[in-house]
Amino acid sequence: MEIQAKYVLLQNEFYGKILDTKFERWVLLESVEIEINYNINLNVYDVQRVIDIQHQVIYGKADTYIIIFSDAKFLNAAVSVLIGTLPVYAQLKGKHVYIRFRDKQSPVFEFIKKVGMYDFFTNSNEKPQYTKQRALPFNRIVNEDMMEEYTDKIMELAPIIMNDKASDVLSSYFFEIYQNSFSHSESEIDVFSCGYWMEKQLIFSIYDMGVGIPYNVQHNIDCDMTSQECIEWAFQEGTTTLDETIIKRGLGLSRLEKFIMLNDGTMSLYSHDICYTITNGMKKNMELNKPIKGTMIIISIKADTEHMYIVDDEKDD
Q1: Residues whose CB falls within 8 Å of the CB of residue 222, separated by 6 or more in sequence, listed in order
Q2: 252 contact partners, CB below 8 Å, separation of at least 6
Q3: What is the pLDDT of residues 77-106, one digit of tens each?
Q4: DSSP letters along 109-162, please?
Q5: pLDDT band, residue 238 (cuts 50/70/90)
Q6: Label partner for 259 (CA 20 to 30 A): which of 17, 137, 251, 303?
Q7: How far is CA 26 from the centre of its chain?
Q8: Which residue has better confidence, 12 or 112?
């Protein structure tokens, strides 16, 4: 990743207008330009590059950051949620993030429009102008009505055949993921979601910029657990850091994991310094170079028109 500035880079940090009377010189540094000249796919390496940008914005000294998509040709819809939440979070912290493109013909700019991010920032109070029907539009999920709306949209786009019971059960798992993000994350900007029907698969993400699963488990269950143990604990059926006297919780991640393996899809969970992935029926934990802010779940549902998905008689309660 290349970091560019118009003026002076001083000790790896950007400063505002400073007058050094001793040497009578000006240091003019008011913004940081971050160039993205590479494609951003779904792999962990590319996600970590975006997390690195997130770190610069959150912990950097500058007030303004300009993210420039120069030669990038592709931005995965699920990963785009990390880019789209940066202006929202920065504004909350008194900073500014601007996203720029080489020109209007940029493939990434065209996709940003299709996936709903352009409408979110420029046309939030009116009917979307550019968002495509194949999109799970980039948006801020602020209440249970929106959780239901997005769960229904996922089920509408899901490229599989299900009987009614299977559809109801699977949608309940997605709804619980949204609900748990609200209940557990302590996110200051609520929960965001984004996705798109790509070739032969539906890919989408659910993201909060909260405290992360390891923090929650360590502070509510066992302070001695490692980040990896916390993630593994979260995937155990019936586990939750909330009081269950009102609502039975803890089924979402566990049951969703089983569905993903049955579908031969993929799922990635990024939280704090851990990435937990399910690919080709294999589970893997990886330590991130830098921790992500909060928790991001990325799900890919593979197109399957040759099988009927049903639910067995196992009780969910």
Answers
A1: none
A2: 173, 174, 176, 177, 180
A3: 999 999 999 999 999 999 999 999 988 889
A4: HHHHHHTTHHHHHH-TTS--SS--TTEEEEEEE-SHHHHHHHHHHHHHH--EEE
A5: low
A6: 137
A7: 40
A8: 112
Angle at 42 between CA 261 and CA 148, to 5 degrees: 65
Tokens at residue 56, please? 């610069």
Backbone φ and ψ for 210, nearest 5 degrees, come out as -100, -145
Boundary-marking domain end, from 104, 132, 160: 132
Highest mean pLDDT among 20-29, 236-245, 305-314: 305-314
Same domain? 186 vs 114 = no
SS3 70: coil
Query: Are 201 and 305 in a shared domain?
Result: yes
Query: In total, how many domains does the chain have?
Result: 2
What number of CA atoms fall less than 13 Å from residue 204's CA on the CB side?
Answer: 28
Residues 140 and 93 in one domain: no
Residue 4: per-residue pLDDT? 33
- Please answer whether residues 117 and 194 qualify as being in contact, where contact means their C-beta atoms are separated by less than 8 angstroms: yes
Asked if 299 and 312 sit in the same domain, the reply is: yes
Whether 291 and 179 share a structural domain: yes
Q: Yes or no: say if 89 and 207 are a contact pair by the CB < 8 Å rule.
A: no
Please check whether residues 99 and 128 belong to one and the same domain: yes
- Domain boundaries, position 13: 1-132
Which of 109, 132, 155 finishes a domain?
132
Residues 128 and 224 occupy one common structural domain: no
